Automatic annotation (TrEMBL):
<keyword id="KW-0472">Membrane</keyword>
<dbReference type="InterPro" id="IPR058061">
    <property type="entry name" value="SCO4848-like"/>
</dbReference>
<dbReference type="Pfam" id="PF26606">
    <property type="entry name" value="SCO4848"/>
</dbReference>
<feature type="transmembrane region" description="Helical">
    <location>
        <begin position="42"/>
        <end position="63"/>
    </location>
</feature>
<protein>
    <submittedName>
        <fullName>Uncharacterized protein</fullName>
    </submittedName>
</protein>
<keyword id="KW-1133">Transmembrane helix</keyword>
<keyword id="KW-0812">Transmembrane</keyword>
Length: 69
């Protein structure tokens, strides 16, 4: 499937924004949630990991499409 440059830019932008938000959320999780309530913090850990993986994949797709386009 061939993506246009505009679609690649959109994927790249969404990936970078997701990474920014979830990295800062991960820091907040580590600094606050993990210290106060470990059980609640462990419930949020998979959400953070999955969201970071999605952000990395979107960024990868955007960069790959820009290089090929």
């Amino acid at each position: 499937m061939k993506l246009s440059r505009r679609q690649c830019n959109l994927l790249l932008g969404m990936g970078v924004v997701m990474l920014f938000f979830w990295v800062t959320r991960g820091y907040t999780w580590y600094a606050n949630d993990l210290q106060s309530d470990p059980y609640l913090a462990l419930l949020h850990l998979p959400i953070i990991i999955i969201s970071l993986a999605i952000g990395v994949y979107l960024t990868y797709l955007g960069l790959k499409g820009r290089r090929e386009g």
